[in-house]
Write a structure and sequence with these properties.
There is one protein chain. The protein has 824 residues and is of the alpha+beta class. It contains 25 helices and 31 strands. The strands form seven sheets. The protein has a six-stranded antiparallel sheet with strand order 2-1-6-5-4-3. The protein has a six-stranded antiparallel sheet with strand order 13-12-17-16-15-14. A five-stranded antiparallel sheet has the order 8-7-11-10-9. The longest helix has 46 residues.
Length: 824
Amino acid sequence: MDPALAGAADAIVVLDGPGRIRAWNAAAERLLGIPAGKAIGRTFHQLANSPELKSKASGQAAWRGRITVRPSRGARAGQAIVVEASAAPVADTSGQVLVLRDVTAAARLEEELTGLSMLGAVTGGSRPREVIAQDAVERLCRATEATIAIILTATERGYVIEAGHGLTPEFSELVLGLALPDSPLLRALRPVGAVVSADLDHAPLWPEVRGALRELGIERLRLVGLRVHDELSGLIGLGWGPDSTAEMSDGLLFQAAAHVANALENARLVDVLAAEYEEERQLRSRLVVSEERYRTLFEESPEPLLLIGRARQILDANAAATAQFRTTRQDLLGRRADELTMAPIGDRLSRRDVERRQGRTHFHSIGVRPDGTSFPAEITLTRVDIAGEPRSIVLIRDLTTVERLQAELLQAQKMEAMGQLVSGVAHELNNPLAAVIGYSQLISSSKRLPEDMRHEAQLLAQEADRTRRIVQNLLDFARQRPPERHPTGIRALVESVLGLQSYAIAAGQIDVRVSIPPDLPPVEVDRAQMQQVLLNLTLNAIQAIQGTGVPGRIDIRADAVRGDDSRPEDGRDRVRLEIRDTGPGVPRSLRSRLFVPFFTTKEPGTGTGLGLSVSFGIVAAHQGRLWFEEPDGGGSSFVFEIPVTAAAPTDERMPWPAGVPQPMDGRARVDALRHPVRSRDDGRLRPVETRRPRVLVLDDEPAIRAILQKALDVAGMDPVVVADGQEAIERVRRERFDLVMCDHRMAGMYGTEVHDAIAEIRPELARRFVFMSGDVLNPELRAFAVDRHVGLLAKPFDIETVTRAVRQLLAEVELEGAATEPLG
């Protein structure tokens, strides 16, 4: 099998003409739990039962779709695995190539969301409110793998816990004993579209609640408001422990909250109706149907409902239905219900038959409005008797938002794949970049080089460093990690985003003017999230100017804003940043909807309508504000303010995640070679100036080995370079070294494997180790470095960085009292 296919993240299976397996990659082994040795030569259907796949694979045409497979042997035998599958014919044979991706988790999430959507269907029968709420909580926990979940709702007596999962009685009592209406959490959720997504230390909670959640083992929270007619009526809270990685996107969380709010409101109305019925039951016969109560339940339901008669004509429509069909109640009355959906006559007759026999039918179709527009619809018909007459209640739910969310989820998966591709490309680029930077520095430092050529070598190094920054910016956006806030300079953030936008800016003939004072205080932000905000706002400005067809200008200005102690909400100092463009501006009638999710003024396919709403949420999570202003002279201006932090960064470089050893960049000026070294033979001390420290260099790139050998030799050290891990281990067995510099990602053995093997032979070298990598934020490498207390050196590096980093590590080892073995 081609190496690229063998190492692919998706399962790859190659079949010959009769359907026997010719190739079976590692991902296929993981997906189906069957080793390649037990799969090659068999037919796929002998290993995994899938009627859908068997019917599709009978021909040789290309196809794709979602199917379920059940392995008949191996580690996952009998399990139902939902996969996205695609097949293509092999060009030179009559065989096929199957590509399989595990989407079992996504299918489970979709199933639970579908269940949530049916919780509050009026036609689904009466269920107690607490049962509905607990059902919703359990579905959310199954869908998101949340450790705890809670639904809080407002009543006339105050806030109550409708349902919970993983809560202790002490925690519930604590929550109900607080002044919830005045809590910072409900204030944060009050704006429409607000979502709180934060780690425990940064969530807007009372200190008592934060402490109680910490005792429950919770470290991450997602909270969203429950709304009825746009009014906040409660909240849903989900929490995860330190080891959990699963969660729900903002779009799906909004969708789940809307379903739960509708279900609880329907249950409330049913409870009201039941109470009224109990009061009147003593005065009327049980067979008398109250028109008043029916009207209340029917009209106030947030779901679009129609009442149709025996001849399929519409007898009544509630306010939600008239809003969905964009017409009046009078215009709907008397119409045939079939006019509001698009379906063949045969399908309509079969559904009526199911409704007559079972009393209920549920299906998907296309809804048609009287003005001719259409929408994807989920329809439920239920037969009822009203005043002794047979009727049908029809629920027609618009699925436009659901399908849009599914498209956004697919786009997010594509972006994740793009991020993995960028990470791999960056690693491959950083190796040659390190060689280009190193050799250009060596050439420019040569005394024999003419001055004009020395200048050209310096230009070469500058351009290579510029390429390094571009690659690093791409990595920053592609990498996914938990939010981490650190004091950060605004100028560095703006410049990194403009670097990514440089091509679009030049192509659009846009003049960008940046005015940021050098003494502007830092702000405590999550770098990647704030970069996303700046990217969204600058991209909107660029596209607005490009839409005019003429050159334009973008002004980016930042200022410090002093806090006002007389106003609690303005008590802290803030940084104000404004992004102004000379585009066409925003019509006044649309400004109130700018931050509403999925609202966009761009052409279809150009924007998702999520950029501003996501940016609004990120800024709000940083205790800041984001708003629109109309500048004098036209155009658009978006402004945000975020609080200032007391700590100041050492320079304009980006912050490093807490608890992770920093890459050794040579900035710490430690005179490593002044400390004496103890000899093993007589135990006496001798100064290191009498010998050259021996450094073992392991890298599978010839250019990197060559530049490191020359750089370390010039720096007064004795470098020994090797090309593979096994050779390095053998050299350590035979010889003595003061330090090991090792590449992380190599063919054959990874650097972490080499480290453990060398540490077993020479324990004194376990912490005299420096990993070199083009991606020092790699989670596995970071965890290994923290656990073993070893250094990280980011590629590409320059000569000065290498020599200072090596001297720094040698000095730290000496200061800790470690004795160096005598040279072999």
